[in-house]
Amino acid sequence: MTAVSDMNTPRQTLNVGFRPDGLATRLRRRYFRTPANALISLLGMAALLYLAYHALDWAVLKAVWSSPDGTSAVCRDIAGACWAVIQQRWRIIIFGLFPYDEQWRSMLACVVMVVTIVLSCLPWFWKPLRLSILWCAGFIIFYVLMRGGLFGMRAVMPADWGGLTLTVFLYAAGVLIGMPMAIAMALLRRSEMPLVSRMTGALIDGVRSLPLVTILFTAALIFPFVLPDWLQGDKIWRVIIGFALFFAAYQAEIIRSGIQSIPVGQEEAAKALGLSYWQRTGRIMLPQAFRNALPPTINQLVITFKETSLIVIIGFFDILASGNAAYGTGEWSFAYFEVYIFVALVYFVFVFSLSRYGAYLERRMRFGQH
Amino acid sequence: MSEAAIRITGMNKYYGRFQVLRDINLDVGSGERIVICGPSGSGKSTLIRCINRLEEHQQGRIDVLGTELNDDIGNIDHIRRDVGMVFQHFNLFPHLTVLENCTLAPTLARKIPAEEAEATAMTYLERVRIPEQASKFPGQLSGGQQQRVAIARALCMKPKILLFDEPTSALDPEMIKEVLDVMVELASDGMTMLCVTHEMGFARQVADRVIFMDKGEIVEQGRPAELFDNPKNERTRTFLSQVLSH
Ligand SMILES: Nc1ncnc2c1ncn2[C@@H]1O[C@H](COP(=O)(O)OP(=O)(O)OP(=O)(O)O)[C@@H](O)[C@H]1O
Ligand SMILES: [Mg+2]
Fold first, then answer.
1. Fewer CB atoms inside 10 A, N or C side of chain B?
2. How large is the greatest C-alpha to C-alpha distance in chain A, in angstroms?
3. Which stretches make up the ABC transporter domain (chain B) (predicted)?
4. Do A72 and A93 contact (CB within 8 A), yes or no?
């Protein structure tokens, strides 16, 4: 009972009277302080410029951007990048096997899902009611658009969904189902009933010790044999549940570590005020646990985004698999590098935004806000 | 002081084999102010933490405000709403503002409407003399200010009994007085208080009764003047001479 949490120590971060120097002054101070320092800076800059020039030369100056006749002939004998492959094949990368005439639906659905994700990152939506409405609306619109069969839209089975849209949907659904599972598992593992905590522990350890591929395989191909028909649902849902379970097993341990790093006095104070178990958990423990566990949580979310590409194993065409299909037709097969760069760029946009958002949350929480 | 607010009879508590509290018998009248002192490890914290069941006792009986403490969760939560506690390390909720710290339990556990809870909270924050800090976070306050917020937070539940576990031990000397002043004021309002502290001046000023504990037992009790100036037990005398020589 002697540990004083550092939360309790006063902290003041004010830089009164600090005036930033001009750019030139700052550059001189940082990179040209001594002759040796200046030499190293110059050499470094020269090397950087050289590399940047070559990259630019390949990617922009000598690149071919489009193919007016739709064939790969424009890219023959060029020294630069063949971006024409993207111009010609981007629909496959983004929409996978979705029927060509209906691809506007897939586009719209993808935008809806991304907007839903972005909106739920805004603090205004951080109320249980608002979040639930947002996500229900997001998923319903997405599902109706993609699945069709309503409002005169042609039905498209989930097996034909693909590309970026499928990746984003799988990710959002997996995390959204996985996060409550993770919270439940973390709390059950801390239960005072030994049987409950042991069984949850065994489940978490079990799931974590299996490769994701095995879990997806089981969910997609083995469960149809063991589950009664009415419990099976579509393959996509079984895969999402498997994916969510895998995410939850890791995230549960992250949350549990977040709970464990809360000083015991917090729960005692909440108890002493007469708050019930659920009030203590929802208002005192979990908010602080998520705060403590923010960096590993963002980490897990990033890893999970990249792991969506594994569903190709069971026959779904996520963005990476669709990318393979986009150049794999013989005609464009030389342009795989450009396709991969494009796919990598898409991943980068998502993952980088996620980590910037994580940094924003950390900054925001440093001042104790919620 | 007719009706007992707290009645402890023949209570024993163990941590595994180790007996922390031995045959504790203690009646606390409503409105009575009690100071508990004794050497480190003598079981003072454990005793007052048994009163709101942050610790469970194994033998004997504890009645608080007419309800016996047992495994009935509903009873416990009910009693805890009427028994406030102030901790050595404040234990404010760092993710909530000062005002939210004070309104959380009244709105959740007592179901008081938000505006009313806020108005009450501001009254008590004024009483502990920090209304201007209401929208700050605990991490932005000094130790003394945090402890006064903790007192206000406990008061917002309108408790019938207040427990203090060494409320000034984690504070710098210049902050001790501001917290003690608040406590003296509370005492003069007729709050039932049990306070573990080594602040002898405070004990003399407000306590109706001082209890001296050692090795898990209540060794001696009496009016502050009696116990401090005229201790009967050898162990009390040794302890007092050590505390006073500081
Ligand atoms: N959770 C625990 N498990 C085992 N022993 C404990 C536990 N908590 C306290 N004790 C022991 O019980 C005894 C009484 O502890 P307690 O905290 O009540 O003492 P205290 O009188 O409040 O001391 P201090 O003045 O240092 O706060 C001590 O010997 C302590 O080591
Ligand atoms: Mg103690």
1. C
2. 78
3. 6-240
4. no
Condensed to tens digits (0 to 9), the pLDDT of residues B175-215 reads: 898 889 889 988 888 889 999 998 888 999 999 999 999 99
Question: Ligand 1 centre and the CA of B12: distance in Å?
Answer: 14
Would you say residue A2 lies in a domain? no
Look at residue A54 and tell me if it is in a domain.
Answer: no
A1 CA → ligand 1 middle, Å: 9
Global ipTM: 0.93
Write out the residues of chain B at the interface with chain A, using a CB-CB cutoff of 8 A: 45, 52, 54, 77-85, 87-97, 104-105, 108-110, 137-143, 146, 153-154, 157, 170
Q: Would residue A234 count as lying in a domain?
A: yes
Cross-chain Cβ contact B138/A8 below 8 Å: yes
Say yes or no for a CB contact (<8 Å) between A274 and B87. Answer: no
Q: Are strands B161-165 and B83-86 parallel, antiparallel or unpaired?
A: parallel
From B17, B46, B51, B54, the mutation candidate for ligand 1 (largest count of ligand atoms within 8 A of CB) is B46
- Express the helix, strand and coil content of chain B in percent, nearest 5 each: 40, 25, 35
| Boundaries of domain holding A307 | 93-98+156-369
CATH code where residue A271 lies? 1.10.3720.10
pLDDT tens, position by position, B70-122 = 888 788 888 999 999 999 999 999 999 999 999 999 999 999 999 999 999 99
Chain A residues closer than 8 Å to B153 by CB: 273
Interatomic CA distance for residues B118 and B128, integer angstroms: 15
In tens, the pLDDT along B142-173 reads: 999 999 999 999 999 999 999 999 999 988 88
| Cβ density class A250-285: b for 16+ within 10 Å, e for less | bbbbbbbebbeebbebbbbbbbbbbbbeebbbebbb
Helix or strand run (H / E) with residue B244 = helix B234-244
Residue A348 lies in a domain: yes
- Residue B201, number of CB atoms within 10 A of its CB: 10
Distance in Å, alpha carbon of B60 to nearest chain A alpha carbon: 22
Do B139 and B104 touch, CB atoms closer than 8 A?
A: no
Q: Do B54 and A268 touch (CB under 8 A)?
A: yes
Residues from chain A that touch B72, judged by Cβ atoms under 8 A, are none
**Could you give phi then psi for residue B228, rounded to 5 degrees?**
-75, -40
Q: Which residues contact B195 (CB under 8 A, 6 or more apart)?
A: B33, B34, B35, B36, B163, B164, B167, B183, B202, B207
Write the CA distances from A228 to A231, A239, A245, integer angstroms: 6, 17, 20
Chain A positions touching B141 (Cβ under 8 A) are 10
H or E stretch covering A123? none
Cα R_g (chain A), whole angstroms: 26
3-class state of residue B38 by DSSP: coil
